[in-house]
Amino acid sequence: MPEEIRLNSEFLVLALILFTPVAAHNYVDGSSGLKRGVHVQGNRVSYGNFAVDKFHRLQVSVGSSSVVSNYRECALSCVNNPPCSSFNVGSSPRSDGKFRCELLNEDKYTANPGQLVSSSSYHHYSIKTPCSSWPCKNGAKCIPNYEHGGYSCNCHPGYTGKTCQTVSAAEYPKTCAGVLQKNPSAMTGYHKVDPDGVGGMSPFFVFCRIESGTAKTEFLHDTPNEGAVDGYEGPGTFIRKVSYVNSLSQIEKVMSVSTHCKQYIRYDCSKSMLMANYDGLGGPYGWWVSRDGQNMYYWGGADPGSYSCGCYKEENCYKYSKYKCNCDSNNLGWRFDAGYLTDRSTLPVTELRFWRYGK
Length: 359
Known about the structure:
By secondary structure, the protein is mostly beta strands. The protein is built from 4 helices and 22 strands.
């Protein structure tokens, strides 16, 4: 039976504290779980309908704390003290026979995941709400409306609908090719793309080079076209880090939806070897570093892991029968090794490592 509690005030307060004892994380839906100060036949009435998570405690900021004679008294205090929406109460009495009562301005639906924890010292009571059936989809947060018995869903980007059940239409194309397809008059410059679509990484800007009816996505970096390498006598002791305008995760997302990817790399040399590693020359002396920090011992145009340069694959290196890179001739004349890297699992280049003063 509901309890009628008379308070010393100018009007009657009928507090109907309805408890629904259920196993942890199992709740029964119902109509409005809370009413505060509604007028019934000239009287002001408040009531709360609570469900219990036994031996659990919601670890959020405590609005107020007190000691009570029983859990009903704690529930009544919550109903009569907005904005309380749940409470923790001691699972067993203290030495004086009282129970600790913590009024909370959050509940397990609006709190962060994991804040409702097992506790041998507390039971947690939350106001009954349709959120107890977890109606919101795709990771959305359920926001209870206690006094109207309703709820709303706070959808993640990319989802819509009452319960966030519908995937939103993609607003941005995945790559620069999509930019041109969507807008044939688009021009070279920065455009926003969304490689993994709604619900994934937030859309971001990339540089699109649009020429002769084609579009390419380019990732600009801070490494100059030329830089001197001199006075570094140990293999790989010269280090040039490469920083990109876009993050590596953004670059990786674009590569994952692109038909092909490539990055041009070139080294001009005089008395500075690259791969060597034959005829007692030792090595490798120079290499590049992948996006996950691995040393890559091959150069543009060559096969991964081949300890060679593109000229060796094309059979046109300087003194081809002896050297696998033009720079491995190690003489004072200026030569270069260059070509495209195409293994998208290792791109982009994040470091260049060289030396100077060969044998």
